[in-house]
Amino acid sequence: MGLYKANGQRITRAAFPSAAVTDAPQRITEDVYESEPYGPGDGRPEGSKRFLLYQAGTIVPQSVIDRLFTAGTIAAITPATGPAAGGTTVTIAGANLDGVSAINFGATPGTNLRVISAAEVRVTAPAGAVGAVNVVAVDDAGNVTKAGGYTYA
Fold first, then answer.
1. What is the mean pLDDT of residues 104-111?
2. Can you give the pTM of this predicted structure?
């Protein structure tokens, strides 16, 4: 699920357009849209359909906003092995990956990150030492780690 402003700009958790009011409720300061694909197998990325989720001025509890940002999961990394010189394009499949802003191979960030959909991201593996490293998807809803997810040969 992706959240967007009226102009199409993606909303991150840290920049969610709201202002504090008394207690835990938050006043939404800009219209917030939810996106979803037209349907499975239609070949179109998430974001093809958008629906108004919250109109500016709506008051919702902070806990409701927090539930909108579901932490991602990593189901598969393909290929899971590559040369120590780096340069391999790696596809990461999972769920709720549309908020990913970086993919780290051990402590080193990958390059050329492309969020294909909420279920898929692609990144170029950096150079690394021979052996297995953790793959970490840096996400505003919380980082996701696949222990030993990529092996440098």
1. 96
2. 0.72
